[in-house]
Amino acid sequence: MLTHYLHRLKLQSNRLTILKNLKQTLKKYKNKAQIKGFRKGMIPMNTLKKMYGKSLLVDTVYEELNDLFNQYLKEQKINTLGSPLPSEGFEPDLNFDMYNYNSFTFHFDVGIVPEYQIAGISESDVYDFDDVTIDSTTIDENIQDFLKRHGKPQEVDEPIEDNDILEIQANELNEDQTPFDKGWSTEFSVLVSSIKDDEVKTKLLSQKIGFSFVLI
User: Fold this and answer.
1) 68, 59, 54: which is closest to 107 by C-alpha?
2) Taking a C-beta distance cutoff of 8 angstroms, is the pair 52, 45 a contact?
3) How far apart are CA 192 and CA 198, in angstroms?
4) What are the residue boundaries of the structural domains of the chain, listed by start?
5) pLDDT value at position 1?
6) Radius of gyration in angstroms for the set of CA atoms belonging to the chain, rounded to a whole number
7) pTM for the whole structure
8) Most buried in the list 27, 28, 47, 76, measured by CB within 10 Å?
């Protein structure tokens, strides 16, 4: 303990636990790995260790350290403040060698939430609780908004509607409405419902993909 509100933890991994967990991880990875030159699940274990062993060992060690850390907090009933930080002056041995490793030791400084009391509140105090009712219209509007923002775009061959997103190619024309060779040209996307010009929106609605129109 450094101070009442700052503890120093020493976490030491168990080599046998790492060995067991790493073996299971390698087996799972072997079964699902798709590596050029080998059929799925048929890559030799030694080849797998050479290619991915170190990264899988690192993941296995940090998973165990995370489990040890959470287990300690649960057993000691500690509420931490912020995230643990590596302790200064303690350099961990990061020898992640698949064929030659021992246990790993890490030191962390952990902030502890201090005990506190909220003044001006007693058990006899009474407070209002708002029971909020959300109408179906608001729910439907939020669902539609969510679908717009996170839905998967899909090209359709149907009349354009107010909530469609259009990909438009715009080209500058000559006076006879033929393409101007050295004119301005661009491509952009637009949500139909966001178009403020009623004339333009009216021209777009009920049309289908591939149609063209002229704006003067």
Assistant:
1) 68
2) no
3) 11
4) 6-112, 155-216
5) 56
6) 32
7) 0.47
8) 47
Whether 87 and 107 have beta carbons less than 8 Å apart is answered as: yes
Helix (H, G, I), strand (E, B) or coil at 152: coil
In the predicted model, residues of the chain with pLDDT beneath 50 are none
Residue 167's SS3 state is: strand
Residue reference for tokens 């300690």: 72
CA distance from start to end of the chain:
77
Three-state secondary-structure class, residue 172? coil
Task: State how far the Cα of 165 lies from the Cα of 168, in Å rounded to an integer.
Answer: 10
Provide the CA 18 distance to its chain's centre, in angstroms: 28
Give the domain 6-112 fold. Alpha-Beta Plaits (3.30.70)
Q: Which token pair is 143? A: 């669902």
Cα 111 to the center of its chain, rounded Å: 27
